[in-house]
Amino acid sequence: MTRTLTTVTMQLADADAVVARAQRGDPVALEKLYRAYAPATYNLVRRICRTTEDAEDVLQETFYEVCRSIRNYRGEGSIWGWIRTVASSKALMRLRRNKYRDTDELNDELAPARQGSPALRLDLEAALDRLSPTARAVVWLHDVEGFTHEEIASQMGKSVSFSKSQLARAHQRLRLWLDGGVAG
Amino acid sequence: MSQEHLSMELLLAVRDGERSEPEQVAAHAHVASCEACRAELDRLHQRTAMLRALPTLTPARNAFPAVQRQLAEDLRHRWQRRFAMGGLAAAAALAIAVVGNDLARPAELDASEQLETAMSRSQVLERTLNAWRPETRAMDARTAEIVIQLEDRIAEVDGRLERARRLAEQVELWQERVGLMSALVDVHLTKATNVDL
Question: Which of residues 48-107 of A touch B (CB under 8 A)?
């Protein structure tokens, strides 16, 4: 699969120069980084976090970390790739901290009533929301953000097979909820 | 394999072009010959495309001011720890005080002495700042902004000094440089908010 980054609403044309200035502590450059990458960062963490409040907290935590650690960024990979990794790590940490009851289970307690009923098919947004936080995070990080299973497993502190299994089970559920059929 | 339809895990492997396992290689071959699995793979591709096409969610508030406050608070705590250790910070404060005293009574000195005094004090402040090694210190956004402004102004004064020919003008510029250097040391060693630009 071609790795496709999610929508970065404003790419920095002069990213290298802005990063270099940010690494020297230039506050204007730091704010420029925030304005360039906050929308995409928020979109990522909001897809993982359960509430907007959690997502906004994680957005703040992410850029606090970015500003503190920008000097450690060595230019290996894009600046967005680096910020994205910080953001996903923070969002997954938030998930663990909240200790959702259904962290490792699909949130499909309502699914039987919807199976095979086209009238009750969910749209994609609603279907995503019904996945467990872990499954939703794996789907988003892998299929949209382009993280590898190895990267996801590392960030979650789980195995690669766990990540693959979560992705497959999530797609089975999405397939069922969206198309009404039975897959796999 | 050819008699059964593919599991979601193998469909995902085909979608992602994985061929590292024999089962995955067989899955690619199976899709080529199985219309039902090809249709399922198409649905998977469509679903993935739909996921990527979901609208971008945007935050309700600008988080950057809160980030800046956190960074400033960090800096304040670091300063408290450093000042508690005394040492260089105290020495630097003393240097600033001495410079301040000398500059406070320029009228008692003639122009040449004033020039010599200002140049000497500028060197003291340069040494103090170099010993502090500001390039190794973290600073918050507001501090960095003030440092940049001060450094720009010092560079501007240095440019004017190169062109200055009259003694009185040189004295005035060197004294301005000492003032700016003093502020720069101050902003590095104390709170940025105390510096009035």
Answer: 52, 55-56, 59-60, 63-64, 67-68
